Amino acid sequence: MIFVVWLQASIIFTPRFLSSHPMKPLLSFLAVLCMHMAAAQTTSSTSRLAGYIKVWGFAKYYHPAMGSGKVDADSVFLANIDKVLKAPDTKTFQAVLSGMWQQLGAVPAGKAKYSTAGLFTRNLHTGWIDTDKLLPTDVRLQLRQLRLQGYADTVHRYLPENFHEGDIPAEAAYKNISYPSVPYQLLALARYWNAIEYLYPYAYMLKKPWDKVLAEQLPAFTQPMAPTVFEKHLLQLNAAITDSHGGIVSVKKSSLLYGSYFPPFAFRFAGDTMVVTDYIDTASCMRQDIHIGDRILTVRNKPVAKALQDYDALVSASNNHKKRALFSSMRLLLPFRGFDSLVQTGILRYGKLVQQPLLMQQASPAYLATLTQLYQRETGNGTTTKNDFVLKSISNDIAWLDAANLSILYNSSNDDRPVDSVLQLMLQHKKAIVLDLRCYATQAVFYNKFLPALGRKLQPFVRLLAHAPHYPGAYYEYDIFSGVNQPPLLPAYTGKLILLVNENTHSQSELISMILQASGPTITVGTQTSGADGDIINMPIPGGYTLTFSGRHVSYRDGTPSQQMGVKRDVKVVETTQGIAEGKDEVLEAAMGLLKR
Predict the structure, then answer these.
(1) Which of 163, 191, 244, 425 sits at a 20 to 30 Å CA gap from 299?
(2) Residue 151: which of 76, 63, 217 has the closest Cα?
(3) Per residue in 485-505, pLDDT tens?
């Protein structure tokens, strides 16, 4: 090894010596050969480690000893990971796998007890059991047997207890683990990678093959990681699933990841343009001639779209529209937030692009206080609604309801009050009811109260797929409203029902949109919604972190998924820089335009 290092150094630093030396061809050949051998050894080590993570993950979800709790999955992983890392060759690695399987206990041969007929199986990717040449024969046979018969026990500690549960009973948090710690780094990677493999219903929609993500991340996770480096790679894993339920992950020192310098203003995106929407530090904005409505086209000498690419791998979102909303949120303020106090900015003024360096600032108490106020305004009372009303009359015959505030008014699924004065008042508006779903609302009020008030029955509206307990990674169809008893219906409402949607129409609000769309004539107006449906799974990661992802598969009855694309819209609104600059509600205006026809 010393010779190889010396030889490479000679090639790099003594070209004249080699060019005149008769041994040059031989030395060059040996150097290249050694480098290829080192690369091959690294590749083999990575392949073995990837194989171990897959075998362990499959056993975690399919072997009865692990699923029942007789053997702790994490303990097995940690007991063997050092042996895998130190395995000098395939034979030694195979002995480690065989030894691990002996800890679990052999699975007796037998026929399949459960059928996969009728299950959604697009996420079952177990071909590696047959093709991975590194697997020892005894382990391969056991894996095949488990794949055939499925998980045979009645309780599974690594699956949600009920179809809608977000927590996994047996996943330990290890909150006191600190980094660097290679074993727990790899446990974090293995736990999350296999959770997506067996619990994420939209794995088949991933833009990058999940196997490739594992291969790309393994070299980093095998090296000691400082806490910030570990956090960065967690965010990369989270962003790779392109799921708005992943969103913005809370990290311990965000200033080391995103930077400690902030812009003095808030903004929103209109296509590839940023529009200043509010002041965070008014005095700083005035000094720098920044005004609400200013259009920003470049940041750090890059067009906005290119500037955002630097952060794509740090935020998870189902679609680009939602991702930009997350970037501009008060939690991130990207791409302006960063490590430099002066940011070169291209601002459109009087039809010309003006280059202007803008002074960023670190978060003073006054800045944080204003930022908190804006964040509370942005998120409302935890519902993302900016409206301060339940019902407002746009005119004598048009009612405007806020779905989140209506949910809060009826905050219990067991609320058995009849349609009360608020909904009675709504029905007095004969021309149209405009329901604002640009918020986070909850479902119960809409099938318990809202639909009966409109004289509409709850209709089949969705295909919801939940985890198949005996075949993790496969899903069965669950009728979520089979037990719902709808109250008596009022006379049918004859006016129009218009739904307003945007990127804040997320998860349950998307499901509510689908409920109402199926109930009868409905017009959906707005921008693309979040594209994240089907509850949430919370996956703890060693060190006190939590990564979240969609837990159930949701689609329209015709099979169209709401994931990524969002809910179906009858009128697709594209918000403009002019509209944002002037503070217009272009979605509401589009809805009003329909009613004037």
Answers:
(1) 244
(2) 63
(3) 788 999 999 999 999 999 999
